[in-house]
Amino acid sequence: MFYRPEDGHGLPHNPFNAIVTPRPIGWIATRGADGQDNLAPYSFFNAVAYVPPQVMFASTAAKEDRGDTKDSVANIRETGVFCVNIVSFDMKDMMNRTSGPWGRDVDEFADAGIEKATCETIACSRVAQAPASLECKLTEIVKLPGAANFAVFGEVTGIHMRDDCMTDGMFDVTRFNPLTRLGYKDYSVIRDVFSLTRPGES
């Protein structure tokens, strides 16, 4: 089939998210100017540059108590920092709990029973048991077409990796099985890994 998004797809559910899969999940920790911590998952997330290392995530909805956006973007506007936590398969239920439409006064760490740790380079909390966490300094917030669409870019200023996720000096995703987002209500998990050598590489 073919459809133009502006005309609608005529299907029971929007297939767009099911086409662009799997997507890594950025579990974004922020802190507002008032000191309130927030934690929320975003599946429009990825790394975008090596030197300096940079990442992005996009927020596509708004809350009544935050005007044109959600807590994460609102907090980053105020403080200029955020921390991306990587989600392992065994943290899926806690991650899902933090995706709820909670008020700005709710600390999702506490609500979901998640242990906090202190970041080293920014004033923000991080998920203590995450396989890895990326401390980020805001570089740019880009307003995208659509009422509440914002892309947030940040430079990574500190990287945490759990020692038990290392194998022979390499960060080993098979040690923690990253959770990935599919379409609809679906998720998947990375358990199988294979390697390919690019042409010209040894």
Automatic annotation (TrEMBL):
Q: Name one GO molecular function term.
A: oxidoreductase activity
Query: Which EC number(s) are documented for this chain?
Result: 1.5.1.-
InterPro entries cross-referenced by the UniProt entry: Flavin_Rdtase-like_dom, Split_barrel_FMN-bd
Instruction: Tell me which Pfam families the record gives.
Output: Flavin_Reduct (PF01613)
Q: Supply the alphabetized keyword list.
A: Oxidoreductase
Which top EC class is given? oxidoreductase
Domain (Flavin reductase like): residue spans on this chain: 18-177
Q: Which PANTHER family match?
A: BLR2425 PROTEIN, FLAVIN REDUCTASE LIKE DOMAIN-CONTAINING PROTEIN
The protein's name: Flavin reductase family protein
Biological source species: Mesobacterium hydrothermale
